[in-house]
């Protein structure tokens, strides 16, 4: 059985947008991706709602309009729930942020 390839373009803008990207699978085996969104100065979330990714949700989790924000992203999947959780840095405030899905 060949793996299915889903090719989606996430429009973010900026010369380094999407440079720091992590992708995992949720409990239902649908892809979820977090990425640096340079245009909006935050971190973006792209979540497929079906296996072919024909239906999806995108959102900017933090939009402080600083292109250096959210540059370092680390995402894990909780071993029991298989839901993604991530940390990322916000350079404009010198903070680390933690986001989890429930």
What does this molecule look like?
The protein is mainly beta and 102 residues long. The protein has one domain (21-100). It has no helices and seven strands. The protein has strands spanning 21-25, 31-37, 42-48, 56-60, 73-77, 84-90, 95-100. The protein has a four-stranded antiparallel β-sheet with strand order 1-2-3-4, with no helix packed on it. Strands 5-6-7 form a three-stranded antiparallel β-sheet, with no helix packed on it. The model has no long low-confidence stretch (mean pLDDT 70).
Topology at a glance:
Layout: E1 21-25, E2 31-37, E3 42-48, E4 56-60, E5 73-77, E6 84-90, E7 95-100
Antiparallel strand pairs: 1-2, 2-3, 3-4, 5-6, 6-7
Rough shape? Answer: globular
Question: How many distinct beta strands?
Answer: 7
Distance between the termini: 32 Å
Radius of gyration: 14 Å
SSE topology string? EEEEEEE
Query: Strand arrangement, largest sheet?
Result: 1-2-3-4
| Nearest-integer average pLDDT | 70
Strand count, sense and closure of the main sheet? Answer: 4 strands, antiparallel
Number of helices: 0
């Amino acid at each position: 059985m060949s793996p299915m390839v889903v090719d989606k373009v996430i429009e973010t803008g900026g010369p380094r947008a999407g440079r720091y990207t992590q992708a995992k699978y949720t409990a239902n085996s649908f892809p979820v991706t977090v990425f640096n969104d340079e245009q909006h100065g935050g971190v973006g979330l792209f979540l497929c709602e079906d296996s072919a990714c024909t239906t999806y949700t995108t959102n900017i989790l933090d939009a402080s309009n600083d292109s250096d924000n959210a540059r370092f992203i680390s995402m894990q999947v909780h071993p029991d729930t298989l839901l993604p959780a991530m940390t990322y840095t916000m350079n404009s405030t010198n903070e680390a942020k933690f986001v989890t899905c429930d």
